From TrEMBL, chains A, B:
InterPro entries: Gal80p-like_C, Gfo/Idh/MocA-like_OxRdtase_N, Gfo/Idh/MocA_oxidoreduct, NAD(P)-bd_dom_sf
Source taxon at top rank: Eukaryota
N-terminal signal peptide: none
Organism: Capronia epimyces CBS 606.96
Domain Gal80p-like C-terminal intervals: 138-282
PANTHER family: CONSERVED EXPRESSED OXIDOREDUCTASE (EUROFUNG), GALACTOSE_LACTOSE METABOLISM REGULATORY PROTEIN GAL80
Residues annotated as domain Gfo/Idh/MocA-like oxidoreductase N-terminal: 4-131
Any Pfam family the entry gives: GFO_IDH_MocA
Protein name: Gfo/Idh/MocA-like oxidoreductase N-terminal domain-containing protein
One MF term in the entry's GO annotations: nucleotide binding
């Protein structure tokens, strides 16, 4: 089959998420060919072509309208900051010839945009994919299998603790765009959003939830690359996220995501407790869409353990799963799945819309003090 | 000063919480003398006197009315199952001669009873004490001091995970009384109640909270002392407690208490995260009113750590505090505090009433799906 021709928005010669994650996979795949780039200017796009030694003929554009007019593009790949997703996707979905679309998570800056874009994609009949790549993580896929197999018995509850790295006391200039809540790129939507997406991928959606959010640090210190304070900057996005609720398939879920780095060694800690066994997923980073947690299965050694903890303790054994060589591992599994290869799965706009609705429910619950449903 | 003469309800020759916790302290204290016991019968009380070789003359009673009529009793100590607290305290508070009262936590089976008893005690002008003895735990007292000193900076949030031992898949006959929710002696009120009381002792009360409760195991297996199944018994009390909210002094608190024993090593895990440092309290049991957590202080090694986790990790050091020799340690600190000795504190009916109001708010939030306040 001829490779799918990709027009990529956001592959920068200065380095970017796209260059570290998508590019290594796409370059070694026979299923995809990058045929066009759009950057801030055609020259910038050319620099990226040169820098990454992209094979074949690559058209270089400085505007989305040129890219979407290119008949040699089958699929538009949007890998830029969230606030730009809407306009780029809207253009791609209005292209003269139908183009499939990929976009990083979050799909859009808010629910309204996400709904509109999902509707446009459905109306146009194009295929969609969203970078909720925690779903491709080997330990998370294995956890999903174990839960589905009944190995844990009935799910009683699950607790997830994470730190988002962003929204500690300091911020660097490249991340200033995350500070205004209306940009939709923050602790809740990105690190917590990816992690809660993984939770729901493994355990199913919430029946209802409530949330407590806080903006403990309404001012951050903007620092230079040496860590020196430049000036104070205002932040309206939340830096503490607590979500709790009942899962549709049973059990109670509690999620706490904090800004900055953990001092307690809990940058990512997730336990899933069932009537027969528990799972423990741990990682050094709360960005579970990028970093791979270890997976452990904890089982009671004998039935006598359950009588008030008497007898020997539980048995905790690591479940061995593939480890990623680099950031393109999870992303690559999704690209493979898009052409029906490998063990990964495709996450569509519709899937992402469910997650946007959940995030909206979290905001609403925090504002109103009431339990919310989102399905 | 003459010792305070105690009339104790619930000291059994067959062993009891009172015999393991109150008795060892009271026997070695010059401040207290046990002058009367009330058990199921005068004979049962006599057996306890003989079994524990109580010094001096101890009157033995089979009814609370006899005990409260005894002019040689200055203070009535109620250490029996929660469903009996109300009638016993009501009798003690109506005694012909004024008597101070001690009662184990929970003060009563529900908020209505607790309010009535607190009102009666205040009207009678007696001193009260409630066994919320986690407040006496050395690591918890030290955590409170560290928070108050500003060592942690501003409190950003706190997360507490615990297992209650009770309400795993099995139950023994001595704990059957905990199963009906109307008895008010369950996972929420006892292990979680003590632990949340410790949280509020250290960090202050909740501004508002919401809660998700579940009764994942509406039937338990009643087992004999060898762990053999006898029959299934119905349980109406919850076995999963998730509470989340904003603290009055700032920060977000999340608490998860589960039934049974943990398979994940999180029988008690509590972190308190401040803008300058964090505290970690850990124990092998979620009954933090009985077992002493270790206390660790986690600090960032340098300011550079906070820029996206670069540089060396945080420094985690144990804070050394006294360790208890036995179950009478925490209880003893409260008895000492009642006579203005030692570093402990007295927890009054009024203090306990705040905790009862919180528990009522937790139930209401779970039932209505709304955020609740209780102060």
């Amino acid at each position: 089959m001829a490779p799918i021709r990709l027009g990529v928005v956001g592959l920068s010669a200065e380095g970017s998420w796209a260059s570290r994650s998508h590019l290594p996979h796409l370059l070694q795949s026979d299923d995809y060919a990058i045929t066009a780039l759009q950057n801030s200017s055609a020259e910038a796009a050319s620099r990226a072509v040169a820098k990454y030694q992209l094979p074949g003929k690559v058209a270089c554009y400085g505007s989305i309208s040129e890219l979407v007019d290119d008949a040699n593009v089958d699929m538009v790949v949007v890998s830029v900051k969230v606030p730009h997703h809407y306009e780029l996707l809207k253009a791609a979905l209005a292209a003269p010839t139908k183009k499939d679309v990929f976009v990083e998570w979050p799909l859009a800056a808010n629910l309204r945009e996400a709904e509109e874009l999902t509707g446009l994609a459905a109306a146009r009949g194009v295929r969609t994919m969203v970078g909720l790549q925690a779903r491709q993580n080997p330990s998370i896929r294995r956890a999903r299998e174990l839960v589905a197999s009944g190995a844990l018995g009935d799910i009683l509850g699950t607790t997830m603790l994470g730190n988002g790295l962003v929204f500690g006391p300091q911020v660097t200039s490249d991340l200033l765009y995350m500070l205004p809540i209306e940009h939709g790129a923050n602790l809740l939507t990105i690190p917590a959003g990816h992690a809660i997406d993984a939770l729901c991928y493994v355990l199913g959606e919430f029946k209802h939830l409530h949330a407590t959010l806080a903006n403990n640090r309404p001012e951050l210190s903007l620092v230079d690359s040496d860590g020196n304070h430049v000036r104070s900057v205002a932040k309206s996005a939340h830096d503490y996220v607590a979500v709790e609720g009942t899962l549709l398939r049973g059990g109670v879920a509690s999620v706490v995501y904090q800004g900055g780095s953990s001092l307690t060694g809990k940058d990512f800690y997730w336990e899933i407790n069932g009537s027969k066994a528990s799972l423990i997923l741990e990682a050094d980073s709360g960005h579970v869409q990028m970093f791979h947690p270890t997976l452990k299965l904890a089982t009671p050694p004998s039935s006598s353990h359950s009588v008030y903890g008497s007898g020997p303790g539980p048995k905790v054994e690591e479940v061995l799963v593939d480890k990623a060589a680099n950031l393109s591992y999870n992303v690559g599994l999704a690209w493979d799945a898009f052409v029906d290869k490998g063990p990964g799965s495709v996450t569509t706009f519709e899937d992402a819309l469910v997650r946007h609705r959940m995030i909206d429910a979290i905001y609403k619950s925090n504002e109103t003090g009431t339990r919310q449903s989102y399905l």
